[in-house]
Amino acid sequence: MEKDTLLEIKKLIGEKKPLAYVRSFGCQLNISDGEKIKGLLKKIGYDFTEDERSADLIILNTCAVRENAEDRVFGIVGSMKKLKELKPSLIIGIAGCMTAQEHIAEKIKKSYPQVNFVVGTSAISCIPKLLLDCLKGQKFGMDIEEYDDFSAEAEQVRECAFKASVPIMFGCNNFCTYCIVPYVRGRERSRNSEDIISEVRGLVANGCKEIMLLGQNVNSYGSDRGEKDAFPRLLRQLNEIDGDFIIRFMSSHPKDASRELIDTIFECEKVANHLHLPLQSGSSDVLERMNRRYTAEKYLETVNYIRSRDPEFSLTTDLIVGFPNETDEDFQATLDIIKRVRYDNIYSFIYSKRSGTKAAEMEDLIPDEVKSKRMRQLLETQREISIDNYKRFIGKKMRVLADDVSKKKKGFISGKSNEFIIVEFEGDTSLIGQFVDVEIIDAMNWAVIGKII
Ligand code: SAM
Ligand code: SF4
Ligand code: F3S
Is 65 in the pocket of ligand 3 (CB under 6 A)? Predict the structure, then answer.
């Protein structure tokens, strides 16, 4: 941030600390960007509020992955017109993936006069300049150019003291035909391993118990620099850091799920016994039209290798239902594969057409009711698998990082096991942020229940 800009802003806002409301939508990478935006605002002199009505500055850090995510943001921006009428000095900025689509940025400018500025995903560092222009009375500002990733150097206001997300790469090169991400996040750029290691070391020294390494395709880390196996190497280096903490990562692309990566997971005691491996569809035909670059058979080979090392290893996945012209047979293939793999959990989405992507040009004759019916069937199948799967933990000991009070059971604490399973157990709030050993006594379809040992 330029020193002059900072000084000018400080002069304009004076002694009083104005309040900022920053809300992030979408994936964990975007949430991490939101923490960086907060870091910038803190440096400028802002405090934070969870109530938009008391805010002097509102920043919505948006997601564009599905149409409903965009509609939600448009709804919220629309409702902010009232807030602006009540407080004309309120500054509203829109950041994140929606803004990287020119037609959306233009729509915001044209139809939502309450918005003061629009800032692109690679222009976060320009927020102070845009803010300064607004404070000086400029009606609208926009910066959606590509600059930097604003990564390692950025101070973050982290939402949680004991769990931290660490982006290790930005962008995506895969161009899955349904997906907007490569268009709004640009090409893959990996951070230096030294920067990542020193960031993780600092976090652990400050008491952080869980590190989540982030990337749209984490396991291709380093391939933009022509490095082979750079991700397993990074995991091994992070595993060497002293301290009691757990390493997770998300998302892995099946095409890059090498044996070396799997061996690394098993050989590094701090790396979690869990792999999120997005399948998207069980039909090789659909996978080809999605440009996923693996077949269902190849995916199963990877799963079989993992399960040959540990038959109970925890896997989760992402699935898309109703990709253009997905046939009943294609959908049946998805059901078959989830029954074979027996995921502990799935994240499933009805296909959403994203303008500018290849799939948006594909003819789609499947009625919406069919897509919804398939979704219900998928969820029902998984529900049965999850409850049955979770029974394997009954009578076993699990080490849980307690992270919140239970939303469903009074007097209970909720946490995640090493295997990424939600565990609830009776306990008090002083346990939050600690590893707790529990014995599992019951299983549900969304969690297991334990008692402290
Ligand atoms: N990079 C990760 C990967 O390849 O698995 C995840 C990216 S995306 C943010 C998260 C999930 O959203 C994807 O795995 C996919 O299932 C889903 N998704 C992406 N585009 C979609 C679309 N147009 N419609 C429905 N779901 C979509
Ligand atoms: Fe999207 Fe595919 Fe990249 Fe994931 S790998 S972000 S689904 S293009
Ligand atoms: Fe959404 Fe952007 Fe993430 S489109 S899922 S916030 S990279």
Answer: yes
Average pLDDT of span 28-37: 93
Of 33, 65, 189, the residue with max ligand 3 atoms within 8 A of its CB, to mutate for a pocket test, comes to: 65
| Atom of ligand 2 minimally distant from the CA of 182 | 8
Question: Which atom from ligand 2 is nearest to the alpha carbon of 253?
Answer: 5
Rg (CA), the chain: 23
pTM value is 0.95
Nearest alpha carbon to residue 32 among 198, 209, 150: 150
Cα–Cα–Cα angle for 264, 156, 57, nearest 5°?
140
Neighbours of 440 (CB within 10 A): 23
Best residue among 30, 94, 98, 124 to mutate for probing ligand 3, ranked by most atoms within 8 Å of CB: 30
With a cut of 80, say whether residue 149 has pLDDT above it. Answer: no
pLDDT at 153 over 60: no
Task: Tell me how far apart the alpha carbons of residues 170 and 120 are, in angstroms, rounded to a whole number.
Answer: 14
Beta bridge partners of 321: 350
pLDDT in tens, 48-75: 999 999 999 999 999 999 999 999 999 9
Using CA atoms, how far apart are residues 443 and 448, in angstroms rounded to an integer? 4
Tell me the pLDDT tens digit for each residue of 40-53: 999 889 999 999 99
Nearest CA to ligand 1 atom 11: 318
Task: List all residues whose CB is within 6 A of at least one atom of ligand 2.
Answer: 172, 174-176, 179, 181-182, 216-217, 253
Ligand index nearest the alpha carbon of residue 250: 1
**List of residues 6+ apart from 365 with CB closer than 8 A:** 325
Cβ of 216 less than 6 Å from ligand 1: yes
The CA-atom distances, in angstroms, between 63 and each of 122, 285, 317, 380 are: 14, 29, 20, 28
**Distance from C-alpha of 123 to C-alpha of 110, rounded to nearest angstrom:** 21
